[in-house]
């Protein structure tokens, strides 16, 4: 169906009708996330919480093993992974997660996802995915859920933008 | 028996003060955040590619509004606090803008998770506002004793009052 894309990164969106529970999303890996990466993010968002850039304070005063990867960086990372998969015709409608474990400077992180439910509703294909972030040792830190919207093959048209507040 | 009082419950659903970011979304703020987040979607910076998308112009990544509240030019320096308290951890305490703080006799606050729903993407020039409300204040019995679960919903809107995203954050007081 002809419509302008919802992401600018090109590629293809998954076909909703081809998705099944268990379909894996292409993972996204970043790292090793050095202290320079952590400092750059803190500075970009003007967050001065010292556990992200002050090693002495973090290990001495706060008793943590090392500098922490910011939770807000990790949530952007999950969104990126999901949006990249949803592609030009899809919309990330919802994302939810919990910060269960810390990730430390030096770790390499992989955002992953797996389809857990598919539902055609109101001319939209809604796909729910289990998501999370694992480090290089496979330890999960940020489990959650994402819901994406895709057009239906025989539906009314593209995913609406702005996306409806009730769905 | 519990910590939650009728006064706490009276806060449920009441909109807090609406607050608007001092600095509008700019190409420069987008560049910094995009590079910091290691984002690779060119519609976040490339005018030509963005013109071919549904938005017709460069837009912000979905979670950008979370970071819109940067310090205004001439505003007091938050790092001045370090002179009086060298052990200050640099965080803003995680308070929610525009909401009355909860007076609970519990000291430890744990992050119980976040859920964001997206409706529109912010554009360059947008003045982003937030407004929050308590949507859950409940006594619970946890494994380590009594606790209170507090959920706050925050709407992020642009200058035309269009809803960009709605974020529900849950905190566990113990």
| Rounded average pLDDT of chain B | 93
Q: What is the largest interface, and how many residues per chain?
A: A-B, 50 and 46 residues
**Largest sheet geometry of chain A:** 5 strands, antiparallel
The shape of chain B is globular
Strand order of the largest sheet of chain B: 1-3-4-5-2
Distance between the termini of chain B: 15 Å
Q: What structural class do helix, strand and pairing data of chain A support?
A: alpha+beta
Order of helices and strands of chain B: HEHHHEEEE
* Number of discrete helical segments of chain A: 3
Which structural class do you get from the secondary structure elements of chain B?
alpha+beta
Radius of gyration computed on alpha carbons of chain B: 19 Å
Low-confidence stretches of chain B: none
Strand content of chain A: 25-35%
Any chance you could write out the topology, listing elements then pairs?
The complex is a heterodimer of chains A (167) and B (174).
Chain A: E1 24-30, H1 35-45, H2 55-61, H3 71-86, E2 91-97, E3 109-121, E4 124-134, E5 144-151
Antiparallel strand pairs in A: 1-3, 2-5, 3-4, 4-5
Chain B: H1 6-10, E1 19-20, H2 27-37, H3 47-51, H4 81-84, E2 109-118, E3 129-142, E4 145-157, E5 163-173
Antiparallel strand pairs in B: 1-3, 2-5, 3-4, 4-5
């Amino acid at each position: 169906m002809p419509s302008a894309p919802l992401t600018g990164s090109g590629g293809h969106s998954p076909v909703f009708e081809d998705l099944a529970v268990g379909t894996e999303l292409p993972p996204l890996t970043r790292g090793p996330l050095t202290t320079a990466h952590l400092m750059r993010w803190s500075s970009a968002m003007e967050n001065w919480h010292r556990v992200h850039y002050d090693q002495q304070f973090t290990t001495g005063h706060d008793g943590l093993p090392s500098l922490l990867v910011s939770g807000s960086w990790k949530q952007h990372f999950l969104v990126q992974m999901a949006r990249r998969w949803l592609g030009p015709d899809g919309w990330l409608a919802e994302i939810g997660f919990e910060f269960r474990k810390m990730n430390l400077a030096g770790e390499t992180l992989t955002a992953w996802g797996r389809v857990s439910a598919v539902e055609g509703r109101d001319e939209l294909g809604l796909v729910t995915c289990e998501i999370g972030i694992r480090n290089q040792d496979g330890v999960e830190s940020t489990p959650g859920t994402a819901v994406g919207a895709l057009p239906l093959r025989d539906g009314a048209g593209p995913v609406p933008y702005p996306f409806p507040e009730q769905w | 028996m519990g910590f939650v009082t009728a006064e706490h419950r009276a806060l449920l659903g009441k909109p807090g003060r609406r607050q608007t970011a001092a600095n509008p979304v700019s190409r420069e703020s987008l560049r910094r955040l995009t590079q910091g987040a290691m984002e690779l979607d060119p519609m976040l910076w490339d005018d030509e590619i963005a013109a071919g998308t549904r938005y017709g112009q460069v837009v912000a990544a979905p979670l950008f509004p979370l970071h819109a509240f940067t310090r205004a030019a001439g505003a007091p320096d938050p790092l001045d606090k370090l002179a009086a308290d060298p052990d200050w951890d640099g965080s803003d305490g995680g308070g929610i803008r525009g909401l009355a703080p909860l007076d609970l006799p519990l000291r430890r606050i744990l992050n119980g998770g976040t859920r964001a729903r997206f409706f529109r993407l912010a554009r360059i020039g947008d003045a982003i506002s937030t407004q929050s409300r308590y949507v859950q204040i409940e006594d619970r019995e946890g494994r380590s004793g009594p606790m209170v679960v507090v959920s706050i919903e925050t709407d992020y809107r642009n200058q035309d009052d269009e809803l960009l995203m709605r974020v529900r954050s849950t905190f566990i007081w113990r």
